[in-house]
Structures are given as C-alpha cells and as structure tokens.
Amino acid sequence: KLDGGDILDMDNHFAYIIGYPDGLVRPGQNISREEVATIFFRLLTEEARNSLMKKTNDFADVENTRWSNNAISTMAGYGTIKGYEDGTFKPSQAITRAEFVAMTVRYYDLFNDVTFGATTKKYTDVTTNYWAVKEISYAKNIGWLNGYADGTFRGDNNITRAEVVAVVNRATGRSADEDYINKKFTKLNRFTDVNDSSKWYFADINEAANEHIGITTSEGET
Hints:
Blueprint: H1 4-7, E1 12-13, H2 33-43, H3 46-51, H4 69-77, H5 97-108, H6 133-142, H7 161-171, H8 178-184, H9 202-209, E2 212-213, E3 216-217, E4 220-221
Helix pairs in contact: 2-4, 5-6, 5-7, 7-9
C-alpha cells in the first residue's frame, strides 16, 4: 500500500470536473457510477495511477473499449469501487447517495486510516442493519454529510453532481477560495450553467474544475 501522500497530493489540486461538450456541468443532474469512478481516478497522483494502473476488470458489463474502463479497472483494483452480486458494475446507472458515500469512504481509506466507531443513529431512515450504515455514520461524524430537514438521509435516492463535488472536496481537504474565484471568475475554466455566485455549489464546482496549488491556512484555502 502506498503512503497517503503518494495517493493524494494535498497541495496540487487537480481538476476533476470537466463538464460536457456543450459547456454545461449540470449541477442538479444525477451522476453515474462510472463518472464517480472517473473522479476518484483523476484525483490519484501519477505515481498512484502508475502503481496500480489496470485496463481490465472482472465486471461483466465493462468492456475494455468503454470510455471509463481504465478508471473503473484501476479503482476496482484499489478496492474503492465494487460491483453487484450478479457480477456487473452498471457503469451508466445513476449512483445512489449511499453507494457514493461508501465509495468515498473506501477512497479516503487509501490515504487515511479509516476506523469505524459505533454506528450512532444519525438519520431516522438509516437503520443499524442498513448495508452502508458504517460508512454513512463515519462520513457524518467526520463532517462530510448533511441530511434533509426532516432528519432523513435517503440513501437509496440518487445523488446530484453538485452534491458529489461538495463531499469530494470535503473528503480531500479542499475548500474553495471564494474571494479569488469571484475576482478571477472570467479567467477560470467555467460552465455556462454555473455562473451565479449565490448558488450553494458555485464555489465548490469552481474549486473542482480548476487545477491549482492550494495553500491551507487557518482561514481556509488560498
């Protein structure tokens, strides 16, 4: 196992959101399982990619010509992503909130030692025998997650692209420099559907879409 710093570069913040050819990022749209696998793959250091780069996998529905094959194969090799009991990965299927949290915790374990504590009941709809209760509890305790106003988590619901970016930023220690983004917005890689700075996801998506050196201070990232 590589050291944590060899997996994730804490200073060089790679761009892991590219968007679509039409210039949109579609923040409120669902995100697929293969798109999430690709995010984790893009966040790996070059050393980590080369250490365990794979171009084949055991999933019955991920052929080696698929656009996401290398990302899926490599992240499966790292144990970050898992398939279903029928041997499929269902790459184009929208990922659920619980599936995404489980993947993120497994990814986080590559560069931090994850120890599961008591599965404290944080959400009214996450029972102690729910398949992802440990991962959801861990992510909630570490401060990655917000639930809904009614106290639920709705783990079987699909998660949006903006919600994914917000959690990935928290899990990888990235916190957007909002002053810089607002001042330099016209010079950044940006999307035509993310141009309103009042939106809750505005800073997070711009953080994720622009490669930069991030310096963390007591006041956040610069």
